[in-house]
Amino acid sequence: MVVVIMGSKSDWVIMKQCTKVLHQFGIPFETYISSAHRTPLRTKEIVLDTEHRGANVFIGAAGMAAHLAGSIAAMTNKPVIAVPLAGGVLDGIDSLLSSVQMPNGIPVATMAVGKAGAINAAYFCVQILSLQPKYSNLCLELAKDREKRAIQLEKDTQTIQDELQSQ
Q1: Total structural domains in the chain?
Q2: Neighbours of 70 (CB within 10 A)
Q3: CATH number of the domain encompassing residue 78
């Protein structure tokens, strides 16, 4: 199971992209809203409860100070992935730096800012889970997904070439 924790409801617009990918691969997930700063005890309860119930990977998505993923990592030994989100005057750079700069021994895998990061967080979960015998089929599913994406790129290339030739 993957646990997706967002710092606020406004983060759902982006993180919905993450859960779509998890759903596509048949990975069970739960989503929560909890803040490292405003509701740290709730965050701890979520992490401990879901870990007890079998959580394999955590995703923390937040903007600005973005300490959520780091806070989660301090509470669990399971993999934690950060999705920095845009917001505030630095448009995501602050959240990226907050997520990347972790003390040694408390790692957080940090994705790109925004939608691409949310989607890649889900794909990274798929890769992590594929190491477990229960999810061994995921390697084949990832290969199929990549092949499908490659075919789509070829189709897109042809569409553009056709459009240019018709001008």
Answers
A1: 1
A2: 23
A3: 3.40.50.1970
Q: Is residue 132 part of a domain?
A: yes
Q: Is residue 155 part of a domain?
A: no
User: Is there a binding annotation on residue 11?
Assistant: yes
> Which regions of the chain are under pLDDT 50?
none
Gap between the Cα atoms of 113 and 130, Å rounded: 25
Tokens of residue 85, six digits: 């989100």
Coil/strand/helix, residue 109? strand
**Nearest-angstrom CA–CA distance, 28 and 53:** 12
Nearest-5° angle of CA 149, CA 2, CA 59? 85
Please give the DSSP secondary-structure letter assigned to residue 25.
Answer: T
Judge whether 75 and 69 are in contact, CB under 8 Å. no
| 115 part of a folded domain | yes
- In the DSSP assignment, the letter for residue 41 is H
Predicted local confidence at residue 65, as pLDDT: 85
149 is in an annotated binding site: no
